[in-house]
Amino acid sequence: MKHSQSNLARSFFGFKPSRLIVFFLTILLIFATLFLGEHIANNLNDVWQLIIGKASHYQSIVVWQWRASRLFSALVIGAALGVSGAVFQSLVRNPLGSPDITGFNVGAFTGVLISIAFFGNLYWMSVLGAILGGLFSALLVYLFAYRDGHSGFRLIIVGIAISATLTAFNQWLSLTVSLETAMTAALWSAGSLNGMTWARVLPAAALISAFMVCAFLLNTRMKLLEMGDDTAAALGVSVNKTRLILMFVGVSLTAIATAITGPIAFISLAAPQIARRLENRASVSLGSSAYVGALLLLCADFIAQHGWEGSTLPVGLVTISLGGIYLVYLITREGKL
C-alpha cells in the first residue's frame, strides 16, 4: 500500500515524496518571508489584498520590491551552492569535498577583494574577479593535488592548505588598502542578502541558470566518473576533459553567488548530503541538492531576519554557525567509518 502511494505521488507530482517535503517546507517559508509582520499582513484578507494588487502602495513596495527580491535571491543562490557542492562531492567522492572546504569560495573572495582594491565596488568587475579568483584557486588545487591521477582525500587536504594561504593573503590585502575599501570588503565578507534588488539579482540569476543547465547536461558523465576513471574511460568518457569542465561549472556557480552576496558557508557542504539521506541514495543528486540548498539558505535568511528582535544579521553568520556544528558531526561520522 505504501509503495503504491509512493508511486502515485511520484507520477502525479513529478517529484519523489522527499522532494515534496522540501517543496512544501519551501512554500511555507516563502509565505512567511513575504507576509510575516504586523505592518504588512495582519490576517489572510491582508495577504489576499497583496496578492491581487489592492494593498496600499507602502505594503506593495515592501513585499514585492524588497522582500520578494531578497527571497528570490535566497532561492537562486541556495540552489546554485547546492548544485556546486554536489558537483565537487561527486568529483572527489567525499562528503567533505565542497567549495567551503577546498577553498574555492575563499579564492572567489580573493578575486573580489582585488577587484574592489583596484577598480572600486563595481558589480560586474566583482563578478569577474570572483570567477577568476575561484578558477585560480581551483587550478592551484588541481595542479598540487595531481599525482598520477587525483585522490579525493588529497584534493581536500590541498584545498584546505590553499584556502589557508589565500585567507592569509586576504587579511594582508585588507590591511594594505584604504580604510574605505577595507570596510567595504569587511561588510561584504560577512555574506549578506541585505540590499538585494531585482536589478542586481536578475542578471546573476541568468548566469547561474546557464551554468546549472550545463551541470545537468553533464550529469550522466559525472555519474560515470563516480564509478572510477578507468570505468568511465572504458565507457567513452574523456575523463580529464570532463573533470575540468565540471570543475569550471562548479567554481563558476560558487563564484557568482559569492560575488553578489559574499561568501556563504555550509550550504554547498550540507545540501548534497541532506538530499542524499532524504532520498536514501548512494550518490548525490543535482536536482535534490538544488532543492535542499534553496531551502537551507531561505531558512537561514529567515532566522537572520527574525531571530533577533530589532536587528538583522548577515545570513553568512547564521550559515557558518550551523555549518560548524554540521562539520563537526560529519568529521566525527566519517572518522568512525
Description:
The structure is a single chain. The protein contains 16 helices and no strands. By secondary structure, it is mainly α. The protein has a single domain, classed as ABC transporter involved in vitamin B12 uptake, BtuC (Orthogonal Bundle). Helix 4 packs parallel to helix 10, helix 7 packs across helix 8 (152-176) and helix 7 (123-145) runs antiparallel to helix 13 (239-261). The two termini are 35 Å apart. InterPro entries: ABC_BtuC-like, ABC_transptr_permease_BtuC.
Summarize the structure.
The protein is mostly helical.
Break the fold down into its secondary structure elements and pairings.
Layout: H1 2-13, H2 17-35, H3 44-51, H4 57-92, H5 99-102, H6 104-119, H7 123-145, H8 152-176, H9 179-189, H10 198-217, H11 219-226, H12 229-234, H13 239-261, H14 267-279, H15 286-306, H16 315-336
